[in-house]
Specification:
This protein is mainly α and 347 residues long. The protein contains 12 helices and 6 strands. It has one domain: Orthogonal Bundle (P1 Nuclease). Strand 1 and strand 2 form a beta hairpin. Helix 2 packs across helix 6. The longest helix has 29 residues.
Length: 347
Amino acid sequence: MARENHEGRLRLPGLRLRKPFLFLLALVALAYAACPCARAWGCEGHQIIAYIAEAHLNPRARSAALKILSASPIDPSLSRYCQPRSTDPFVDASTWADDIRSVRPQTAAWHFIDIPRSAHRGSLAPYCPPATGCVVTALQAQLAILKNRKSSAAARADALRFIIHFLGDIHQPLHNATNNDLGGNCIPVEFLGKLPKETEPSRESFDPNLHWVWDVGIINRSAYPAVPATRRINFQDRARGIAAYLDRKYRAQISGWESQPIDFPSWAWESHSLADSVAYGKLPHPIPIEPPRSVNSCADDNHVALRTLRLHENLGYAYQTGATPVVEAQLAKAAARLAALLNSLLQ
């Protein structure tokens, strides 16, 4: 397990500064119909955020968080996608919100907000339907439950798990933007030599796609000196190693992010801007901004996936190199803001 050093930074025992063996993890599970963007950041990304955030919790907040989580543990019968599970309840909580959708499908829409690429900063109400909610209103609602000492133990534990996860989701750029393409899920791409293949003909879904690249691909294909160089390393060990590396790399910025006010709408717009300028903006073949339309699958909007497939978007090392710093900064920023939120709340 990770432990804190005297500076409160994440430290991992036994790490060797060698280039790790690169490999791809298993593909993300199929998306739910209500939210094709299944798992923001994937297993590694969410756990990286949790490891860094936990290292920056003050002793009182960390003790309170673990007490809340232990008062109502995760149901052992719930099917968990990310394996092996972390033995740290705070880190294990970071991926629970993805798994619970199989039991509570109404929570699927809470992971993202579909802000059109063409939108300008302002009210988010037009993009967050009251009937379903979105990541911004979900964070606000779960924060209210966690603050309320009269909430049941189960409700407070679940609220904390949702918050840990959704703070990660709101910092994934493509969870805050769409171009009638379900946050990039409907943009087939070739990624570092892997050609797109159709996975769901009825929905015209392809893998890899741009959203998957930002959720999983960029992190998987990046090398980190703090990760043990072994072919047997699992994603959990790799997540700890990357967390330690990013905690050191962004040490100066983390203190600044921790001092910022809690502002979920502003963070959504910040991520939206990065989606437009980097995720979409650095594509080899520019994709025009579409007039906003309602889209439920990649077959909608005049077969959006098939239209973009013809662009032959080939994301090579130039795209990977340009996107990696953004991904890293967003992971560290999410962790810093999560720690600051819990430090101010769990006294």
